[in-house]
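User: Round two. Same drill as before: sequence, then structure, for each protein.

Assistant: Same drill it is. First protein:
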Amino acid sequence: MPEPDRIIRLKTVLSRTGLSRSTIYRKIAEGTFPRQIQISIHGAGWHESAISRWIANPASWRPQDQGDKL
């Protein structure tokens, strides 16, 4: 059975990507970075697999249909 995809929060995304908060949100708006998912009323996070795919190849990253949308 495959491991479930973890949800990571902004602090972890910042440290893993080396990007600033404003750069991440600008890239989300441009469609060049994974969108966060709602995990509670006031909380959001990212699928770890989506961030890993972006880190592996940021220049050609494109959203997938499964879970990269808010």
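Second protein:
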Amino acid sequence: MKLGLWLILACYCFATLSIAHASRVELVVVHSQNKLLVKQDDLTLRTFRVALGSGGRQHKQMEGDRRTPLGTYRIMQVRPSAQWHTFLQMNYPNMDDARIGLRNGLITREQYREILQAHVSGTLPPQNTPLGGAIGIHGIGEETEERLNIHDIANWTQGCIAMRNHEVKELLMYISEGVNITIVE
């Protein structure tokens, strides 16, 4: 009887720790080092080398600038991708992006309000404004020798964060939709 009670208690504690463990995981991308870190509190659980936007290290300003945004975002959706193997969609643009876009005349007040409403309701912000959209973490698709070589030496994306296909699968062992991703210089 004591063993049975201990087993139930152990399972409950393990489940509780697993839930707490998962809720504290976050992603940090260090742009200047081309690294994606899986962190829990102050502990780095895993580090991946990534390729970023080919438009330079400045913060993403608008659609087509080929830059990776800087700031804090959330993974909104994980889905298979014919082009990229797997795509983890971020909630870009965030409210900082929207404020800058409004101030610089890139988006209208109505577009700003639509982005605000999406963030308040926890949904994906509009992806078709002049700020751009479809920013996330993805694989490299068909892993040809040429693609692997380019991935290893260059920032080649249109603003996303790219990893090798098996690394995206490994990343999904640590995270799920809703996890925060902070991209720093």
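The radius of gyration is 19 Å.

User: Perfect.
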